[in-house]
Design brief:
With 624 residues, this protein is mainly α. 65% of the residues lie in helices and 3% in strands.
Length: 624
């Protein structure tokens, strides 16, 4: 029989321990829920306000939209063809003809064939198109939705680590983060990736909980979240390396009799992610089989081919530019960016949060600090791009919340309480200010496309083809820049009626920093000279504001090299008044003026003969 319990009056009692602060009162669950909902609404306001006027501008945003458009229109055309095939089988009528259907599918498929391997971002955009159609703003709405979800996930991680109060404070910092608002309002994928990485971190923390009944289940969910992040972009491999390192260090630090957990945890962390990637590859193989049955060359790469191509293309460029772009000042990139886009007080809170997490020396605190520092360290060495700091900004907000929550729980004098309260008020006010500054005027491409469509048609040559293709359609935009006036006239005869000039000075400056001396640079110079001659030929037939220069500076305030990026941003701001409009020039009027007698500017620009078909011709400009 068990030993009878002592009556409460006979139980040994422990007196209050000296110098111990009283336990803070638990926040009522209803109050926590109400506060979290309010923070989600605030975050949603800054992310969705005037988003209906937005659209893609950066070349990556345009590519993601065009890839999603390819998937949506291609699958829609395929579904219509399959429906006709079933109708033929059902009625016995001769309705489905292979060549006609292949041509119909080809004509109905718009956009660009996917090659970047970012299906975790393009699939949600394509799915949204199924409900509202191929609206050019959908990518911005998808990112904004994930931006709100990041606020909720930050609350869960903060509460798991430091309690209810810290969770709410983390949600507040994320909701009012100017840094995250910039990327949430864009059509870029970095906020989406940050959501899945935060979800992976939350599941991993649950798997490390000693009281967890199903640690391997939580670890498997962590692996699936990492897999979803990998489908968004392969940069998820860096956080995965940190999780693996912590698992290995834990296995090595445990006693010999407890190391049996390691194989199971290692498998749970790796296998679900691997099978998810295989599942993502399966539809592409089915598509290849369908193309073989129809005797059609597949118009797309498989997912694994896309990822490998992207790693070779983007990763190769990154490694090639690292040796030229690296400098010690690159390690200042992300502290500078956090201060500029979110505010100096937020940056100070991030620093306090990192030191607080390291000082606590708990494994979960060291894990989040390692993820934060490893993320910034790797990108500062390889390529300190501004958008690569999104996940670190989320982790910084969580650690800062834990730090500030711990300060609030310490007994202090009235003056210290007032100082802490004032700092928190200033911190939130700074967040509101920077989040509001992230709401920038929209680009003017819809107005430009509406003008061309209502006059001589959408077919045009653009100084920024990526944006023109997203807003006007790939089939209506010449994908490069003509080098000579002969090529320009050949394009005019093929139906291209306008030249759209926008952002030319910034793009030209980027060319001269990326393209070394040689034949390609000479070709670029000829193209730029021709476009400049078009601009000098007379006033544009249409002009509209296009103010996202500040938006681009926020996205690329630091890009490759800290010092050079700041210098480029300074020059761009000095020239900002000259590059904030879209100018459309009529090619017919341009050639009429060139042919007029007595015109001193009538001499052909770059009169090099060109292939009239323009096959393989044209300079391919990168976007900003």
């Amino acid at each position: 029989m068990g030993r009878p319990a002592l009556p409460s009056c006979q139980r040994p009692c422990e007196g209050p321990k000296p110098n111990m602060p009283p336990s803070p009162k638990a926040i009522p669950k209803s109050l926590t829920t109400a506060a979290l909902v309010a923070l989600l609404i605030v975050g949603g306001f800054f992310r969705f306000y005037k988003l209906d006027q937005s659209g893609p501008f950066v070349s990556d945003e345009c590519d993601y939209y065009l890839e999603a458009q390819f998937l949506y229109t291609g699958l829609s055309s395929l579904a219509k063809s399959f429906e006709l095939f079933l109708k033929e089988r059902r009625t016995g009528q001769d309705l489905w003809k292979r060549q006609e259907q292949i041509e119909a599918i080809r004509q109905g498929t718009k956009g660009k064939s996917p090659w970047r391997g970012r299906i975790g971002h393009t699939y949600p955009i394509a799915l949204a198109m199924a409900f509202v159609g191929p609206d050019v703003r959908i990518g911005n709405y998808v990112s904004a939705t994930f931006g709100v979800l990041v606020v909720g996930m930050g609350f869960l991680v903060g509460r798991r680590l430091y309690g209810e109060g810290a969770g709410l404070l983390a949600a507040a910092l994320l909701s009012l983060s100017g840094f995250l608002t910039v990327y949430s309002r864009s059509a870029l994928l970095d906020v989406n990736m940050s959501f899945f990485l935060l979800a992976a971190l939350y599941a991993y923390l649950r798997s490390r909980d000693e009281s967890s009944e199903h640690p391997l289940l939580w670890l498997s969910l962590c692996s699936l979240a990492l897999g979803m992040g990998f489908l968004v972009v392969y940069r998820t491999l860096f956080p995965l390396a940190v999780f693996w390192a912590f698992e290995l260090s834990d296995a090595l630090s445990r006693r010999q009799g407890k190391t049996t957990r390691w194989p199971g945890r290692a498998a749970a962390l790796g296998l679900p992610m691997f099978f998810l990637l295989l599942l993502a590859e399966l539809p592409y193989y089915l598509g290849f089989m369908a193309c073989q049955l129809l005797s059609v060359v597949p118009p797309f790469m498989t997912y694994f081919q896309q990822v490998l191509t992207s790693i070779v293309f983007v990763g190769g460029f990154c490694l090639a530019s690292t040796s030229r772009a690296f400098e010690a000042a690159n390690f200042l990139s992300f502290p500078y960016l956090f201060g500029k886009l979110s505010g100096p007080l937020v940056t100070a809170a991030f620093l306090g949060g990192v030191l607080f997490s390291i000082r606590r020396r708990k494994r979960q605190d060291l894990l989040i600090a390692a993820l934060f520092l490893f993320d910034l360290l790797v990108y500062s060495i390889l390529q300190p791009r501004a958008r690569y700091g999104c996940f670190a900004a989320c982790l910084g907000a969580v650690m800062a919340a834990g730090f500030l929550n711990a300060l609030a729980r310490r007994p202090r004098t009235t003056g210290a309480r007032l100082a802490a309260g004032l700092f928190l008020v200033l911190l939130l006010a700074e967040g509101v200010l920077h989040a509001w500054k992230a709401i920038l005027p929209p680009p003017g491409y819809r107005e430009a496309m509406a003008y061309m469509a209502s006059h001589k048609g959408l077919k045009h040559i653009s100084s920024y083809p990526a944006a023109s293709q997203a807003y006007g359609g790939v089939e209506n935009v010449w994908p490069g820049w003509p080098e000579t006036e002969t090529e320009l006239r050949a394009l005019f005869e093929q139906g291209y009626r306008y030249v759209l000039l926008d952002f030319l000075e910034v793009i030209a400056a980027r060319f001269y920093t990326l393209v070394p001396e040689g034949e390609k640079r000479e070709r670029l110079e000829r193209s730029l000279a021709l476009l400049a001659e078009i601009r000098r030929s007379g006033p544009p037939v249409f002009e509209c504001p296009n103010p996202p220069v500040a938006y681009v500076q926020n996205i690329f305030e630091v890009n490759h090299n800290f010092s050079l990026s700041l210098e480029a941003a300074r020059k761009a701001r000095q020239n900002e008044g000259n590059i904030q409009s879209i100018d459309i020039y009529d090619l017919e009027a341009f050639f009429e003026k060139r042919a007029s007698p007595g015109d001193s500017s009538a001499a052909p620009v770059n009169p090099t003969p060109a292939d009239p078909t323009l096959e393989g011709r044209g300079v391919w400009p990168p976007g900003p």
